[in-house]
Amino acid sequence: MIKLSEISTTAPKELTKNDTLKKRDKLTRKLGELQHLLYAEEKRSLLVVFQGMDASGKDGATKKVFRYCSPSGVWAYGFKKPTEEEFDHDFLWRVHKLVPRKGRVQIFNRSHYEDVLIQRVHKWIDETRVTQRLNAINSFEELVEFDNRTKVVKFYMHVSRDRQKEKLQERIDIPTKNWKHNAADWQEAKL
């Protein structure tokens, strides 16, 4: 079992910010080239999942990592609270319809894991249901990898509670970030 509280939120000491930014730029340019080939070939697709707490950098990662990709072949979708129609279906219904078609990249800002995490944290579902949903997620990911040749890659954006509070406060203090502020995020951060 993974315990996030036991995993450091700081970068390894041997990494410098300048070197990391140079490597990121090189890799994101290469990603842009590969995305162009993926789009032209139309034989497989890529699903990228960014999961993390509020203010963990999911939007920033999406913008920076995929900046050299063609907008015609890359879509990003941010999962919010399910709609009434989505609640009337199984929890993966809203996710499945967003799996990318061949040749495309789909980015999930939050994901199907949210429908386990939030439900579990708030104790809206019991551990039996948690296990069933996690098994369903594993089966779903195996299905899209096998049936549609969609590679699923997942990233957990891990930030400390102090850094999260700092970033949430920026959403109040910096006018250009006010649109991101949601008072409920402070309550969720406590959980």
Give short descriptive properties of this protein.
2 domains, alpha/beta, 4 strands, globular, single chain, 8 helices, 47% helix, 191 residues, Rossmann fold, four-stranded parallel beta sheet
The CATH superfamily of the largest domain appears as: P-loop containing nucleotide triphosphate hydrolases
CATH architecture of the largest domain: 3-Layer(aba) Sandwich
Q: How are the strands ordered across the major sheet?
A: 2-3-1-4
Note the run of SSEs as H and E: HEHEHHEHHEHH
Radius of gyration: 18 Å
Total number of distinct structural domains: 2
Categorize the overall geometry.
Answer: globular
Question: Ends: how far apart?
Answer: 19 Å
Number of continuous helical runs: 8
**CATH topology tier name of the largest domain:** Rossmann fold
> Quick check: average pLDDT?
90
Beta-strand content bin: 5-15%
Give the low-pLDDT segments: none
Query: Which structural class fits the helix and strand makeup?
Result: alpha/beta
Text of the CATH class of the largest domain: Alpha Beta
DSSP strand count: 4
